[in-house]
Amino acid sequence: METIRLGPNGPSIAPLGLGTWSWGDTLFWAYGKDFGPQEVEGAFHASLEAGVTLIDTAEIYGFGESERLIGRFCREKTQKVEIATKYFPLPWRWQRSDITKALTASLERLQMDTICLYQIHWPLEFWLKTPDFMAVLAAEVKKGRIQAVGVSNYSAQQMAIAHECLAAQGIPLASNQVPYSLLNREIESNGILTQARQLNVTILAYSPLAQGLLTGKYRPENSPSLQGARRLDPRFSTKGLRKLAPLLTLLDTLADKHDKTPAQIALNWLIAQGNVIPIPGAKNASQAQQNAGALGWQLNPEEIEQLRSAAQGI
């Protein structure tokens, strides 16, 4: 299987991860109603069996429940799992020691002494600034509690500042986690993707299936009832879905051609951009297995451009 390096000197992993925002989240994702611990454990094991070993979480996902679930699941596995989690810079965390305490709490929930990647969730600067964040995380790399430093939702300029602060400590910036999909290509025009390539920073693409819009499940003539965050997104309305129809038709055509699903086509398109690791969510084993079907093959250049054109202006 093709692999990609997470940052300039990070681990070589499959160019696909597993996002776990929904795990334990009862506010946006109806955890405990449509799915629960048994289902997400199935997603965890199915991902690892398919070679997807990067698991992305955060301290605020389910108010820590996502990390607790992952920690429990990992205790039952012997194979290596690459865990990435995040620190949220809340305004009442005004000392550098608060970052250290948050990391300690995440490690305890994960039942681990060290993790692959620790990220600043948002570039929010109150009392603590980017140089503070990066100084603490560089020190944690040297202590061995984290193996690499990442950021999330950082602009091109903010990413460059974080990279410079870390470089002064002899530590590379490994990643920037941002929204990226066929339906959200803002990073191609706002400088983030170009800057990431120049700095050798890996893009972790969250919402790579646009919350399910690119799976083909939601169509104007047959849209399932909406729950959680999808109810707030106008793209899921009948009008919004009609606008997506030409792209969905192309995804269907390419899916038939390659004996894949529309979701697998959309994820493979992202992987084809280079230095990009999509991290789609999965609530059960079936979804995880479908996501993993994006690996081990490639769209050709003409198909990649066809998808780009079909998604233009949507």
Automatic annotation (TrEMBL):
NADP-dependent oxidoreductase domain span: 15-310
Pfam families: Aldo_ket_red
CC terms in the record's Gene Ontology section: cytoplasm
Listed PROSITE patterns: ALDOKETO_REDUCTASE_2
Keywords per UniProt: Oxidoreductase
Top-level division of the source organism's lineage: Bacteria
Molecular-function GO term, any one: oxidoreductase activity
Name of the protein this chain belongs to: Auxin-induced protein
Originating organism: Synechocystis sp. (strain ATCC 27184 / PCC 6803 / Kazusa)
